[in-house]
Amino acid sequence: MRKKIALFSLLLLTIVLAGCSLFTGSKGDRVVIAGKNFTEQDILVYMMKYMIEDRTDLTVETKPYLGGTNVVVQALERGDIDIYPEYTGTALINVLGQPLISDPQAAYDQVKEIYEKQKNIIWLQPFGFNNTYTLTMRADQAENLGIHTFSDLVAKAPELQLGCTQEFAEREDGYLGLQKVYGMNFKSVNGMDPGLTYAGVRDGKVDVIDGFSTDGRIPAFNLKILKDDKHFFPPYYAAPIVRRELLDKHPEVADALNLLGGRLDDKQMAILNAKVDLDKQDAKEVAKNWLKEQGLIK
Q1: What's this model's pTM, rounded to 2 decimal places?
Q2: From 3.40.190.120, 1.10.260.40, 3.40.50.620, 3.40.50.720, which CATH number describes the 133-225 domain?
């Protein structure tokens, strides 16, 4: 009887250990991709997911709309996620606290070097588009007030309401910096969800918003991008950033994602964003269909 019990216990232990081994292997072959809380990031998350799954044997878990920059940065540095798409200007100023660099390649080289040395995070090839911040108004209101540049806006700002994300209001490459560089002070600053700012300015709830240059709602809502005549905003070229730990184990991830390098220009990204924001298409399908059209996945 004791022999049977011992044999049963040994068998049970073998099954448990095998199960643990299988679990560990599965976890080791899982990649977690996250994105910030706006449409463009959602599309990029799924582009990267489908590229990795098509070109490797890895399984990808997605966490779109994880949060603002600080939330996603901390998740990557803790190892809760492996990859997310970041912008050179955001990394340079908002994350690293470095001085503004206007040259796109120099900005990319700087963040790539610092992230690799200090954070063990690797910047892969940029997607190709520059999603810079803009200040945006209704075209008719801008025309009536004679506002075409940021400097024009300064004189009228005390009479106008700014609608922006809470993050923009607190960033040095956002409203805080605009106050210092341009002396820009609005009548009020209204913190808004990034998905609501465009409708807010279109409907007259606010006068000016922090827009993104690749957002398809700007032309669709007849909005005007004001000229940053002092070149305050740095370049914001988007690229996948990846924990070195993952690439050391799976260098094929870099091979897969670098195939997206230079594939998306500003106009193309705006079209894809509009498909989600205006045409109400699913970001997953928009990403997948574009990859298929480009011959990047089957």
Answers
A1: 0.82
A2: 3.40.190.120
